[in-house]
Amino acid sequence: MKYDLVVIGGGPAGLAAAYEAYENGVRDILIIERDKELGGILNQCIHNGFGLHTFKEELTGPEYAERFIDLVNEREIEVKLDTMVLDIDENKNVHTINTEEGYLVIEAKAIVLAMGCRERTRGAINMPGDRPSGIFTAGAAQRYINMEGYMVGKKVLILGSGDIGLIMARRMSLEGAEVKAVVELMPYSNGLTRNIVQCLDDYNIPLYLSHTVVDVRGKERLKKVIIAKVDENRKPIKGTEIEFDVDTLLLSVGLIPENELSKNAGITLDNRTNGLVVSESMETSIEGIFACGNVVHVHDLVDFVTEESKNAGRNAAKYIMGKKRGESFVELKNGANINYTVPQKVDIDALEGNLTVFMRVRDVFKNKAIVVRDKDNNIVQSFKKQHLAPAEMERITILKDRLNYNQGTLTISLEEVK
Ligand SMILES: Cc1cc2nc3c(=O)[nH]c(=O)nc-3n(C[C@H](O)[C@H](O)[C@H](O)COP(=O)(O)OP(=O)(O)OC[C@H]3O[C@@H](n4cnc5c(N)ncnc54)[C@H](O)[C@@H]3O)c2cc1C
Hints:
Distance between the termini: 59 Å
Structural class: alpha/beta
Bound molecules: flavin-adenine dinucleotide
Radius of gyration: 22 Å
Shape: globular
Number of strands: 29
Largest sheet: 7 strands, mixed
Helix content: 10-25%
């Protein structure tokens, strides 16, 4: 079995990449999705807030997904559902399995990796205490309630104030549960401000910043969760414990890009993002293998996933039509108070227009400038920002005519506004 383009993952990233590759002349495309339907994580996100940038409308997750599923179906792009990709190799053979066709090896001229991410679990954060039922990741609870029709509990505590935790606080309240509190290890929330207001403040749900879970009690079902304040080293402070009588604890403690396939294929990963190292065209370290969406870095807005994935699809099409990758790259590095940048390298000649760079900052800041400097410390471009927070992904556009290969590396830092 052979295809020009195989897209792994049928979430918003995979759908947008496949659509854009088609629009750029590729006809022989296969999308492989392990779930029973296309749409990825959006299918369980029934709240609104999607698509403000892409469609200038506020859509729910399933509505946003449907727009792209329709575009893919109208173009009769082939899809294999309920099919798991087990392995890919450097020769672009994709090994898959499903119940109807068994084990299949599919040859591809180009591949787009769009496998999304998964949630960190209790084991990943070494949570102490008993092992009763009633402890779920927030995303698993979201799937149970919104897609499978099961209510997961009545008295709830949520650990982690990222967007999934905040959205589940509201969702559980709307379904009649009593959400006692959201508990956050850091001194600031990791969620979007609009979600703090709409999901906690509007429902009078308290947010405990600089607190964590120190004990979990219960034999069969969860009975009690004990939290405590943490010091500046994030260590619990004795004597600050608060007990909550709850039957459910939801964990929203981070997402990890789903890169087991990429690791097996020997593709280079970035230990800052746990995602893939990519160039301006979303090409990975293996020529002809592209990546987009949460498999590259965790996004808070699906609109940016779409933008990035269209770029991947367009460049996969160019590769299939015979374009080879350049030899020279300028490296992008994170300087003071920047956690990571994507892309990590840029082939200036290959840029279609200006260079878009996504990044996250290390802490909450007010009135700073994101400054891009070359290897000789000259300013390439600078961007004033009134408010920056780790929860909110930053996006800057560096003008193409400011870039040249002599710059060697581009270091992006937060600096005082001059
Ligand atoms: C709870 C939650 C709330 C959110 N709220 C908002 C919001 O309000 N507004 C907003 O704009 N954004 C929101 N987002 C963010 C946005 O939905 C995500 O960033 C986006 O869905 C990521 O798209 P993706 O295609 O990269 O990943 P996913 O949607 O996760 O899709 C990846 C797909 O790949 C498939 N897959 C993985 N591995 C394999 C394999 N080996 N073989 C076959 N298939 C595979 C998976 O089954 C999945 O369908 C939210 C996200 C979450 C989790």
